[in-house]
Design goal:
Mean pLDDT: 90
Number of helices: 3
Radius of gyration: 15 Å
Structural class: alpha+beta
Low-confidence stretches: 1-6
Number of domains: 1
């Protein structure tokens, strides 16, 4: 089987599992809490579902191969997927752009943006079109 296809299935399974954890958190807590509350609850849910993750993972930001700062991603799951959380009433274009920028800055292939702020959980998968295999 093609390696690219294997990678795609791996990411699909992982993102589905992460989204399932987020759905459970939203089902239990509903909307209306601060982002940090959802972050803590999602950490518990992902741990219970045996997902390996780092919370508030600090990653370097590079410009022309020079480090110019750092940024913390809410979760880095299985060393492969960035997960950014929001707890706002409406996602805006700037939030989507931010998720894509993080993928490009960290050179990660796949990311998720999850919003707990609305009555129904919102999520969006992102693929880094500029991803470079290491």
């Amino acid at each position: 089987m093609n390696t690219a296809v294997n990678t795609q299935y791996k990411y699909s399974d992982l993102t589905s599992k992460i989204i399932g954890c987020a759905m459970e958190v939203h089902k239990v807590l509903g909307n209306g809490f601060q982002e940090v509350i959802y972050q803590r609850a999602l950490a518990i849910e992902m741990y219970e579902n045996k997902l390996a993750f780092n919370r508030e993972f600090e990653m370097p930001i590079f410009y022309r191969e020079e480090q110019i700062g750092t940024r913390r991603v809410d979760f880095l799951v299985e060393d492969a997927i960035s997960v950014e959380l929001k707890a706002i009433t409406r996602l805006e274009d700037v939030h989507y752009a931010q998720a894509i920028n993080y993928l490009e800055a960290y050179n990660l292939e796949i990311g998720l943006l999850v919003n707990f702020g609305e009555r129904s959980l919102q999520f969006k998968r992102f693929k880094n079109k500029k991803f470079k295999k290491k």
